[in-house]
Amino acid sequence: METTEATQLHSVAPTASPEPVTRITEDQREALKSIGSATVSSQLSKMGIRDPHITGIGPLTSAEAIAGTALTLKFMPKREDLYRVDEYADPEVQLHRHVLYAVQAGDVVVVDGRANMSSGLFGEMMLTYLVGRGGAGLIVDGCIRDWPAVQDLGLPVWARGTTPNFHTQTDLMPFDYNSPIACGETTVIPGDAIVADGDGAVVVPASLVDKVIAVSSTHHDWEEFSRLKLREGADMRRYYPLSEAARPEYEAWARANGR
Amino acid sequence: METTEATQLHSVAPTASPEPVTRITEDQREALKSIGSATVSSQLSKMGIRDPHITGIGPLTSAEAIAGTALTLKFMPKREDLYRVDEYADPEVQLHRHVLYAVQAGDVVVVDGRANMSSGLFGEMMLTYLVGRGGAGLIVDGCIRDWPAVQDLGLPVWARGTTPNFHTQTDLMPFDYNSPIACGETTVIPGDAIVADGDGAVVVPASLVDKVIAVSSTHHDWEEFSRLKLREGADMRRYYPLSEAARPEYEAWARANGR
Amino acid sequence: METTEATQLHSVAPTASPEPVTRITEDQREALKSIGSATVSSQLSKMGIRDPHITGIGPLTSAEAIAGTALTLKFMPKREDLYRVDEYADPEVQLHRHVLYAVQAGDVVVVDGRANMSSGLFGEMMLTYLVGRGGAGLIVDGCIRDWPAVQDLGLPVWARGTTPNFHTQTDLMPFDYNSPIACGETTVIPGDAIVADGDGAVVVPASLVDKVIAVSSTHHDWEEFSRLKLREGADMRRYYPLSEAARPEYEAWARANGR
Amino acid sequence: METTEATQLHSVAPTASPEPVTRITEDQREALKSIGSATVSSQLSKMGIRDPHITGIGPLTSAEAIAGTALTLKFMPKREDLYRVDEYADPEVQLHRHVLYAVQAGDVVVVDGRANMSSGLFGEMMLTYLVGRGGAGLIVDGCIRDWPAVQDLGLPVWARGTTPNFHTQTDLMPFDYNSPIACGETTVIPGDAIVADGDGAVVVPASLVDKVIAVSSTHHDWEEFSRLKLREGADMRRYYPLSEAARPEYEAWARANGR
Amino acid sequence: METTEATQLHSVAPTASPEPVTRITEDQREALKSIGSATVSSQLSKMGIRDPHITGIGPLTSAEAIAGTALTLKFMPKREDLYRVDEYADPEVQLHRHVLYAVQAGDVVVVDGRANMSSGLFGEMMLTYLVGRGGAGLIVDGCIRDWPAVQDLGLPVWARGTTPNFHTQTDLMPFDYNSPIACGETTVIPGDAIVADGDGAVVVPASLVDKVIAVSSTHHDWEEFSRLKLREGADMRRYYPLSEAARPEYEAWARANGR
Amino acid sequence: METTEATQLHSVAPTASPEPVTRITEDQREALKSIGSATVSSQLSKMGIRDPHITGIGPLTSAEAIAGTALTLKFMPKREDLYRVDEYADPEVQLHRHVLYAVQAGDVVVVDGRANMSSGLFGEMMLTYLVGRGGAGLIVDGCIRDWPAVQDLGLPVWARGTTPNFHTQTDLMPFDYNSPIACGETTVIPGDAIVADGDGAVVVPASLVDKVIAVSSTHHDWEEFSRLKLREGADMRRYYPLSEAARPEYEAWARANGR
Q1: What is the ipTM score, two decimals?
Q2: pTM of the model
Q3: SS3 label, residue A174
Q4: CATH topology assigned to domain E10-204
Q5: How do the domains of chain A map onto residue ranges?
Q6: Maximum Cα–Cα distance for chain C, whole Å?
Q7: Which of B66, B230, C129, F175 could form a disulfide with B137 if both were Cys (CB 3.0 to 4.6 A apart)?
């Protein structure tokens, strides 16, 4: 089948790389990871970001917390004139490989897999390479494959599920990498930060990372005390949030426990 | 934004409590728990209750079995004239706190979260309080948040999933507690019994609790024997249900094993 | 309610058995199990089978790999004139029992449960019998019940979920066994092979079993070497697939490691 | 691709016809059509048939009322080893043609199209033939094609929608005709009666046709009178259903209007 | 089946009426109707109401525009202990009748039908009465029945569809009227205003009706002129919104055409 | 809220235009329109394009057939840091305007609206301009607004539905125009041809337009004859496709009727 030059742009390996991604620092990664997705989401909400949660995906693994810079990969509905089987002769035209070449330590690969349940967008060999490159995790609005082997890699994965099918076996084709994508009804720009844990994954706009870290580091000093009281069934009206009436009691506890 | 007195009724703390809930007894709780959700559902079906199963939710935890009295909490689609951000100044106007104040040992909090996947209806601190109050479990047609911390509380939870978002971050607002709700396409009246385990959660109308316990305590004495035979691959036509032909064999086994 | 002779055909026990099922051999079962669902799916794709994956179901258990011959069971929307409650007087009219009578060692029971989430199509006793008969596993496009007991049976199960409801409590009735069914948008003919593991379950047409085994046994000899290199973050362009440039390096490794 | 004899059974033209269908009479058709789907559904509900409505489909046309005997056609998920492109060389192997050969005046063709929105199960030429054969209507749990031409045929059609794709272009293949099918979550046996109008389509079990007609012909004589009163806004408590207090008023009206 | 006093509260006719509903005036109704749902929605958005649109329903009829005061009716999942068949002996226990008794000229009945497609919540006779009472329209998150007759009543209806089934035939029971409901993921309080037309239906909080009318009556005087220019394909940058550069041209047109 | 330069790239008006679109000719448009979507889809299927149908949308209007060159517009999930309310001060930053500036006679605007039912992506004024520019039609995987006015414009529209909400009122923001999009699970490249009618809309890759026209112009000369015979109920085996046995009959008819 003949294709025009214009459409070949998408079916062969990109000759020019996308613009380079500016990464968050290791300190920022560590800070975001310890804050966790729930507090990050609350703080972003206060800054006007209504819903930073990547909806519809959950941890496939034991949900170790991660934070890192988003690299992106976009799949589109397969069109046989744009994605041809014989292209496999040259693996370099497989676009989903290219996002992995760009991975640096601490990066999180985020994939728009169009919520498709019949396409395994990455398998064991490529995810082994992602681990080898120091990738922090994988976020897929769709499925991966080779799960029996992948679960032994120690790679944190958030996805919709697994399938034995390979990435272009049914409805999808890879189309772009490190361009803006939609993932779980959230827009992700390469260079945004990702925070993911047992609650799910959230996107932190690159421009807001420092602000989120700053406001999240102000903890309520009484939180540990209140948690203990609530666990005992004490009156929540008194202890959460800490009432003025209970403050002396908290302060006595803090002194007694060396806080 | 101005709101009328009528609508404020729903956005401020209730001045009058709902009618008190009549609870099932500890004996009834223990009996229902040991019967399990599958037998409870079958027996209710025979009594004319077509489908007591709360559809669409599963255990988030290891699915310890529970039974208890239902307290209810209802969320509704958020309307910004009825639920305003500055209300947070006074935590007492947060209706979802009020259902927790009412919890007694053995109660199960059942939440109509409208199957919403972007609202974390309870988080760690409030669920710590639920544990502190002796709550038996939590049933949510929707999501909770703070899962990395909540999973260590030992609270049995049945829900659709988790999200980092807080309860009113996106589409919902709490509206009523201890009023009739729909949860997983099942109507729950405060004071009904809940039985939940690895199969899911079922609602037992308060008026049918004794009847369900009475009919469920009549066990087939041959069940253990038949299970052993089926496990050996013996003819199911002979052993399940126990045929007349196999009854002497069963009785010999029962005598030999001191049943 | 009166029913015609024609419709009674479906509501009473079948007097004539379906045609006997031709099974795959134990060698074929072992071969398919070790190949795994991902490679099987790829190979079938190359043979023209677009999507052999049974979509929408996952492992309920720890996802031990299985392979075996498909026996089938079909549920249909319940019609009260065709399926009457008093039929329970005679358990032999329960069609879902009959597929179990036919089970031989290594068989996989595949059930079209119409993706229904309110019908528990098999429970503990019948699945105990399936284990006793040497069944290799259970594939259900729908739910099972008695999960607290079933998970201790050691039976590999792929399904949509669990429910406390029994099989005909709500919307379904068993209708046929060992006839062609649709399961997870895949057609299954009795006698086809099933391969299932952590990625999901796939159907191998009986006529293609030998061909799949033949082509799948040709492994890339360099795969273990490449995996090691990728795990170290070495250049994927060089090692996966193995480039001509890297072949001497691989061969040296192979000699050194006695491959 | 090679296929076994067993699977060819489904991919070639049937050599043996299914059992002949016993039809309802023209009088029965006329009676059911004048009763309408709403009353038929209510009456079946009283006889124990919970939900005879074919859910999910609506009239594509102006929804002229029809009633007739159901002939059935079943589609299944396409499997390329069972349905091969080169079969088109002989049109007689196209199973969906065969159900049309069987059509007699007053028949309704009912198709299990698996709710698929990408398969146009019949087009203009075959539906022209259905009209030519005197078919009363078409019920499709799926789509038809050639709508610009089909809408001029005057054939009443209930379906999910339209698509330009042909019947086996994407996911489906025809599999059986005049065998039991599920259509819109309702089981249809060849020979059942279908009643369809602006409310939708319902299935009347063949064995219940006479009973439905008998009970539906008893009309409330006061209904026309009550309708007039309700239209005037008169008290519904008095006139619907007709109260004893209003009966003399009704009787006077009936006399005055010659009823 | 025995039911407790508490649950009977919901299954018998209410002895006490809900609090009376305060209605919008005829002037307000006329103003809202002429503004239309699109402008109303935009204006509410500017006032902080994010999404007043009742999602998922459309006009069944030719979509004449309406505006009126909302009366509400709530359906809940059917529970056979709370809703018993023999209650039909007394039609007054049918709660859906009671909301109709309360209808005054210009009222709009809004029904939470839980998006159910198998329950026809109102039929011809009751909707005749709604017309007789001067009801302005009907909004149903679910289905109605008797459509062949209802479409001749001239009653504007927005709903999900039609079904031949009656209101409690399958999964629902009426539960409350003139209490707050959710309809199409929007909260409706009795006394709110409803505006519905070809775009759909929106809810205007009672407290915001005057404000919406006030801000919507300020029209751009140049809109008619711009529409004419756009229709001619003139530069949208110049004419919509009207640029300063084009204002003299507009003013000349206005003078020439007597505006 | 602060945003980086990088993210502003998407929230302000593009300074550089996308590459110009190469259009199909008027002759090609006329040819494709007369062929119709059903034949186009079949022919593309034979050329290896599995499913060119834009799934999930239908004609809002009377479904006049159209064909034209695709211009594209892409919406993405709204992120408040990327799309700010005060941007409305300058209408030129509204990206959905820009695709209209590019419209020439015979163009079809195709919009990826992410299947969203709460965003009205175009309204009356902009669609008036589309008509003024000579646009052939509008294809939206989502909703439009102002339907009461739009339906009078005479613009053929295929969409999921209507809503009173404006384009960025809830979840979406415009992001790009004349770049590749996914619409109804089909990839559309600017410059592709669109054919739409009562069956729905299909995408013809620009490179295949001539080929589709060429193969579709070969009509079966006997089709009109066969249609007449089928309409009379004559044997479909004889007349469709025309059998050799019936060819003399056809030829006699053709001579008699001057074909």
Answers
A1: 0.92
A2: 0.94
A3: strand
A4: Glucose Oxidase; domain 1 (3.50.30)
A5: 10-204, 211-256
A6: 80
A7: B66
